[in-house]
């Protein structure tokens, strides 16, 4: 019990030192308020973590967080899938490969013209 309490106080002290160093490294006051808010939330979690362990809520809290994270990742994947279904791959391919992208075709033609200029402009010495 005493060792757990000592570890808890040590974690809070280390966190406070790290937080203070981070606040001093941030130039200007623009991001300082956001950093203080975020570090304050972390400090609250750090302080109540032993209480959650005693009450048996630590696992429940972790499960809720994992569920929320999973749902957020699933939502992002669904959005990306929807976007990929909406785009037409042929719009990004040159005509040589079955596409209909005039900008890509122009770029290819310019590259070919540049290569021909280099070949024509080079002097051959044997």
Which strand-content bin applies to the residues? under 5%
Name the poorly predicted regions: none
* Overall tally of domains: 2
> How many separate helices?
4
Order of SSEs:
HHHH
Structural class: mainly alpha
Major sheet: size, sense and barrel closure? none
Oligomer: single chain
Helix content: over 70%
Q: Span from first to last CA?
A: 88 Å
Q: What's the alpha carbon Rg, rounded to whole Å?
A: 29 Å
Summarize the topology.
Layout lengths: L1 H24 L6 H24 L2 H29 L15 H20 L5
Helix pairs in contact: 1-2
Describe the structure.
This protein has 126 residues and is an all-alpha fold. It folds into 2 domains: 2-86, no CATH class; 89-120. The protein contains 4 helices and no strands. It has helices at 2-25, 32-55, 58-86, 102-121. Helix 1 (2-25) runs antiparallel to helix 2. The longest helix is centred in the middle third of the chain and has 29 residues, at 58-86. The model has no long low-confidence stretch (mean pLDDT 81).
Provide a brief overview of the structure.
The protein is mostly helical.
Comma- or semicolon-separated keywords:
126 residues, mainly alpha, 2 domains, 4 helices
């Amino acid at each position: 019990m005493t060792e757990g309490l000592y570890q808890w106080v040590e974690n809070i002290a280390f966190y406070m030192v790290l937080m203070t160093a981070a606040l001093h490294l941030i130039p200007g006051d623009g991001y300082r308020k956001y950093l203080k808010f975020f570090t304050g939330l972390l400090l609250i979690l750090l302080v109540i973590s032993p209480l959650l362990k005693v009450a048996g809520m630590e696992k429940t809290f972790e499960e809720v967080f994992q569920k929320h994270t999973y749902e957020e990742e699933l939502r992002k994947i669904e959005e990306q899938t929807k976007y990929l279904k909406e785009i037409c791959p042929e719009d990004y391919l040159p005509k040589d490969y079955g596409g209909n992208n005039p900008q890509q075709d122009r770029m290819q033609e310019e590259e070919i013209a540049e290569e021909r200029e280099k070949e024509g402009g080079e002097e051959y010495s044997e």
